[in-house]
Amino acid sequence: MKITAVLGSPIRNGNSEEMVNLFLTGFAGDDIRIFNINELNCKSCQACDECKKSDSIECALHDELQPVMNSLAESDLIVLASPIYMDQITAQLRIFQDRLNVFLRKDFSTKLKETPTVLLYSQAIEDENNYKNYFKTLKKVYGKFNMKVVDTIVLTDASEHDEIKNNIEIQARLTNWQQNNL
Ligand SMILES: Cc1cc2nc3c(=O)[nH]c(=O)nc-3n(C[C@H](O)[C@H](O)[C@H](O)COP(=O)(O)O)c2cc1C
Prior knowledge:
Strands 1, 2, 3, 4, 5 and 6 form a six-stranded mixed β-sheet that branches. α1 (15-24) packs across α5 (168-175). The chain has a single domain, classed as Flavodoxin domain (Rossmann fold, 3-Layer(aba) Sandwich). The longest helix has 13 residues, at 132-144. It is built from six helices and six strands, in the order βαβαββαβαβαα. It has helices spanning 15-24, 66-74, 91-99, 132-144, 168-175, 177-181, and strands spanning 2-7, 31-36, 77-85, 88-89, 115-122, 147-155. By secondary structure, it is an alpha/beta fold.
């Protein structure tokens, strides 16, 4: 099984990265690729529409996001993780998200095969329903590309970057995900 995980936090080993690591413990032996957008030399979508001229998923920017897109196209499972900044995903994950444009044809059909996708979020706000509508919107956004969101896991009350260590329930949900869902 090929799995691509995309990290949106600038904090190494923080809550969202640790959430990804815990999630992936169930997939030992699988082909796992992890990309940290903060560490990639990449630009946001320039709306040049070169990707609309063919079925290629090669972006005209030819930067370090291209291997991420190639990896997504080959994956059986996708994991996206981000902290919430100013009521939204981070700018890093937004850059990645807009660059998913490479998968859309001119008629908005997608070049990506249907791929189960799990969304992991970390937030300081305690109320797990605080961003419910926003997370629903993101689920719809990813759906447009054929990234079929099968689960959304939210770590709440996490103003410290090691808060995941105190949340046994979320830890269990992440480490047992493969067992419970596949
Ligand atoms: C610039 C900035 C903005 C933030 N805005 C929010 C916010 O709007 N809502 C929220 O619940 N938490 C907010 N937070 C808190 C983070 O989402 C939270 O600490 C998260 O657990 C960090 O994840 P990480 O350890 O993976 O970086 C913000 C943090 C920063 C640095």
